[in-house]
Structure to design on (772 residues):
């Protein structure tokens, strides 16, 4: 899926200004950004709930059209089902609206309810289920028609840790089966371990996108974390100690940044001579940190407000 | 996406029809209606079945007693003996009253006639007796002025007015204003109720979808227009089912229950009972109030007497003479057109507001023309179906569904009907268009207090 220069404006604010994205097939794509950045607007354009003012969305090279509804599954942030409808009927209805035949839908509903071990709920009204159960039902409704593209808006909010893990496993399984998945969330740490690609959106603009590994490399600062026993020398021409903390029993924790051209082994060699090293690892920036750094570089005026979110 | 539209309509239909409330209501209303009908029939018949026996002590020597005409409701019996004996006698005999005509009564100025009753005398009984006495005395007077008994008998014959309407081609048709009005009224009421009950259901349904936050899921698979129209059509089907069931069940229940209540094999149906009161009211209008009541009462008796097969045949004949084809066609057109027009607006209101309690301010402008057309329709158009008010109201799409069906049984020129239907179609295309735009924006709008200005803006939003 591709978004090309998408713009969307509402009456009194711009939701998206010139956002272009490419979502590789079979990957998990993280659409990240603070609240109000424009994530939901973009998703609504992809799911054809609204149209873009300018630009276009391509799905496997084709311009997005109503036939693609059957290929897309969408779990909105605002979860909702018909309260007075039975679980089984509800799933059947939603699946049929997505273009599934009655018999196919019935068979798949049975299969999914078995997988989540909630078969006995099929005859219950949705309003009688707990919130977590409703979430599961809604997830089933999202993927029942075996979409090629699954869009999950804040997927883990409202799930307890056990069910969140169950959901993660299902998502990974769906990916194995060839579906592309878009995660949209403002809680970046919650999905960063799952995503292959990410795009960061802030204030209606894309600030960064690419494969997660690449982005991390790009934002690496050659900083290492060291833990050990003894006292670290503070001054050295090849590296700089950014932070040092004393711990109990003469232990310490330090963050050390290497200067250009210096390799980690050089630091390690120096450390071995000076202290007793217990831990040595590269400090990899989290997506959150990258986001803040990136925003600070590109649009510092927005930062104060965003970090509040 | 015709199939999705159907799916939505199907869901709306099935979930509603399967609700307990729907089933209960569908079964209970005809029973209530039939029960009410039985109740009215029972009261009417018990009122007519009992015969008041009034004894007459005639000392006047004018032979008034023999001229008092007994009706099925009121029987006069001559009492023997003195007044004191008669007074005791009628109470012993459990008769209802005693009329005393004193000696030396002047035919020209009959004063001093007394009516004794057990306990309080009802106005109805008093009026009936008075009426009979009046008649007797006027006969006496006529005889005095030289009319023979034979002539008097001839004069007594009752006039049964048969109204005949001439249409433009000069074809005669039995016209019974009452049957025609009744039909108009029934049609208008059906449309009014239908639009109201099911329009509000549309609104609540949209509100429910909005508050349960399922809109986004739905919209990612269905176009807002399909969703709205599916809902409107599904609910229309629910309404039609309910009305049909009510019709059938009421008919069934009444036809089973009514014969059980009315003892004689000539069931006094409501249809038969109505012409009496209405013609009585009409006749009463030119009298002074007090005697109006008397006339009314007299008519009441005549009316019920009239409820014989012949007069009922007349009503059915009238109904059969109405332009039934046109009425049926018109009814369906205005029924659907009016429902669509208002249904779309109700849907838009449901979409525009978050909270059911906020709907009031937007309901007003929708319900006003509906209520207005009903009230004006029943009070003005029914009386003057060809007047200017009737004409204009049957042209404006917001009022025409009710105004025009009221006019239909009275006959409407073809060009007016065509123009009105054309305007109605334009009207509902217009409101559906407006509603779809408000709907499309409104259903995803949360936590915002909506104003009319805002709604105006929504109409011109792009995609």
């Amino acid at each position: 899926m591709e978004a090309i220069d998408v713009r969307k404006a509402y009456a009194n604010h711009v939701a998206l200004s010139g956002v272009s994205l490419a979502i590789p097939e079979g990957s998990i794509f993280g659409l990240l950004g603070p609240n109000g950045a424009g994530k939901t607007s973009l998703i609504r354009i992809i799911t054809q709930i609204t149209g873009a003012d300018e630009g276009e969305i391509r799905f496997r090279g084709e311009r997005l059209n109503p036939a693609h509804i059957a290929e897309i599954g969408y779990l909105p942030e605002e979860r909702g089902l018909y309260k007075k409808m039975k679980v089984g009927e509800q799933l059947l209805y939603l699946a049929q609206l997505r273009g599934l035949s009655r018999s196919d839908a019935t068979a798949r509903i049975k299969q999914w309810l078995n997988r989540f071990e909630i078969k006995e709920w099929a005859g219950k009204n949705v309003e009688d289920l707990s919130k977590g159960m409703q979430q599961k039902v809604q997830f089933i409704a999202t993927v029942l028609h075996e979409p090629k593209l699954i869009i999950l808006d804040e997927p883990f909010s409202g799930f307890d840790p056990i069910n969140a893990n169950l959901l993660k496993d299902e998502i990974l399984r769906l990916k194995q089966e060839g579906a592309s998945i878009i995660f949209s969330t403002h809680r970046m740490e919650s999905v960063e371990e799952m995503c292959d690609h990410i795009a960061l959106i802030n204030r209606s603009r894309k600030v960064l996108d690419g494969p997660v590994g690449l982005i991390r490399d790009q934002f690496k600062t050659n900083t290492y974390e060291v833990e050990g026993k003894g006292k670290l020398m503070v001054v050295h021409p090849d590296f700089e100690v950014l932070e040092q903390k004393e711990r109990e029993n003469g232990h310490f924790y330090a963050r050390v940044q290497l200067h250009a051209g210096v390799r980690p082994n050089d630091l390690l060699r120096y450390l071995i001579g000076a202290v007793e090293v217990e831990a040595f690892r590269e400090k990899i920036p989290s997506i959150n940190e990258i986001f803040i750094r990136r925003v600070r570089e590109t649009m510092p005026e927005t930062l104060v407000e965003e970090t509040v979110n | 996406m015709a199939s999705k539209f159907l799916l939505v309509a199907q869901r709306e239909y099935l979930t509603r029809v399967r609700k307990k409330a729907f089933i209960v209501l569908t079964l209970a209303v005809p029973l209530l209606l039939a029960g009410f009908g039985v109740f009215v029939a029972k009261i009417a018949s018990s009122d007519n079945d009992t015969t008041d026996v009034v004894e007459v002590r005639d000392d006047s020597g004018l032979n008034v007693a023999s001229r008092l005409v007994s009706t099925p409701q009121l029987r006069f019996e001559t009492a023997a003996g003195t007044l004191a004996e008669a007074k005791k006698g009628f109470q012993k005999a459990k008769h209802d009253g005693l009329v005393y005509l004193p000696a030396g009564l002047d035919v020209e100025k009959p004063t001093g006639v007394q009516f004794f009753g057990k306990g309080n005398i009802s106005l109805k009984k008093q009026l009936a007796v008075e009426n009979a006495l009046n008649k007797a005395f006027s006969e006496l007077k006529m005889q005095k002025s030289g009319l023979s008994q034979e002539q008097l008998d001839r004069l007594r014959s009752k006039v049964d007015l048969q109204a005949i309407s001439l249409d433009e081609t000069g074809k005669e048709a039995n016209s019974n204003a009452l049957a025609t009005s009744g039909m108009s009224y029934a049609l208008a009421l059906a449309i009014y109720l239908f639009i109201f009950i099911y329009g509000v259901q549309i609104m609540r349904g949209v509100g429910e979808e909005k508050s349960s936050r399922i809109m986004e899921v739905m919209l990612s698979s269905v176009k807002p227009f399909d969703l709205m129209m599916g809902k409107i059509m599904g609910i229309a089907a629910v309404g039609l089912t309910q009305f049909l069931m009510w019709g059938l069940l009421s008919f069934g229940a009444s036809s089973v229950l009514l014969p059980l209540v009315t003892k004689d094999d000539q069931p006094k149906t409501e249809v038969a009972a109505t012409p009496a009161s209405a013609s009585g009211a009409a006749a009463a209008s030119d009298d002074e109030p007090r005697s109006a009541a008397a006339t009314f009462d007299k008519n009441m008796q005549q009316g019920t007497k009239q409820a014989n097969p012949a007069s009922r045949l007349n009503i059915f004949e009238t109904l059969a003479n109405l332009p039934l084809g046109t009425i049926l066609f018109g009814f369906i057109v205005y029924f659907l057109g009016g429902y669509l027009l208002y249904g779309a607006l109700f849907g838009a209101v449901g979409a525009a507001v978050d909270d059911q309690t906020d709907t009031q301010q937007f309901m007003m402008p929708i319900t006003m023309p509906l209520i207005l057309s009903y009230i004006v329709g029943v009070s003005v158009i029914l009386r003057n179906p060809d007047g200017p008010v009737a004409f204009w109201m049957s042209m404006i799409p917001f009022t025409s569904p009710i105004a025009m069906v009221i006019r239909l049984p009275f006959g409407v020129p073809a060009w007016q009907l065509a123009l009105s239907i054309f305007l109605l179609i334009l009207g509902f295309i217009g409101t559906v268009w407006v509603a779809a735009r408000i709907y499309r924006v409104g259903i995803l709008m949360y936590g915002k207090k909506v104003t009319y200005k805002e709604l105006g803006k929504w109409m011109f939003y792009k995609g």
